Amino acid sequence: xxxxxxxxxxxxxxxxxxxxxxxxxxxxxxxxxxxxxxxxxxxxxxxxxxxxxxxxxxxxxxxxxxxxxxxxxxxxxxxxxxxxxxxxxxxxxxxxxxxxxxxxxxxxxxxxxxxxxxxxxxxxxxxxxxxxxxxxxxxxxxxxxxxxxxxxxxxxxxxxxxxxxxxxxxxxxxxxxxxxxxxxxxxxxxxxxxxxxxxxxxxxx
Length: 205
Fold this sequence. Notes:
The chain is α/β, with parallel strands linked by helices. 34% of the residues lie in helices and 22% in strands. The chain has helices at residues 56-71, 87-102, 115-125, 142-157, 169-178, and strands at 5-15, 26-35, 42-51, 78-84, 129-134, 165-166. A hairpin with a 6-residue loop joins strand 2 (26-35) and strand 3.
C-alpha cells in the first residue's frame, strides 16, 4: 500500500465556438477531493482557468497541467484518480504518449497536435501516481456535471481561480436539483486499498 495520500480529481474543458473561425474563448475546471485523516471527512477544492483563444483539446491538457501543478506546488506527491470525459486525455495518457516517446516524439501521420502542452501535462502528472479514468459526459454524473459548470463559466467569464479554492460543489448540486436537473448522487471517494496507478508516464524532453 502506498504511503502517499489519495486524491480524486474530476476535470472538464470547454471552448465556446470550438473549431469555428475566429478567436474562441475556452475554460477548464477541476474538482479535487481528499479525505481528512483524523475525521474521514471529504474535503473538496475547485480550480478553474480560461484562455481567450483556444480549443477543447488545449483546455483539456491545461486541466491536467494546472491541477497537478497546484497539487504538487509544495513538493507533495499523491496517488490520484483522474476522471474526465475527454478521450483525448485518457487515451493520450494511457496509450499515445508511449508510442510518441518511442518514436522520438513524432508520429507517422504528421506533427503531434499541441506537443508543448503534452510535455507540460506529462511533467506535471509524472510527479504523481495516476489512474486515468473516462466517464461519459453530460450523463448526470454529479462531479462531471459540476466541472463542466466550472469550465463553461470560466470560458464565458474569462476567469481564473488562481489555484485551488474552497469548493461550491454541494450548494451547486442542491441548486441544480432544485431547478430540475437529474444529477445522480456524488461518486464515492475511491478506496485507497484498491488504487492501481496506470503505467508510469514517459519523461518529456
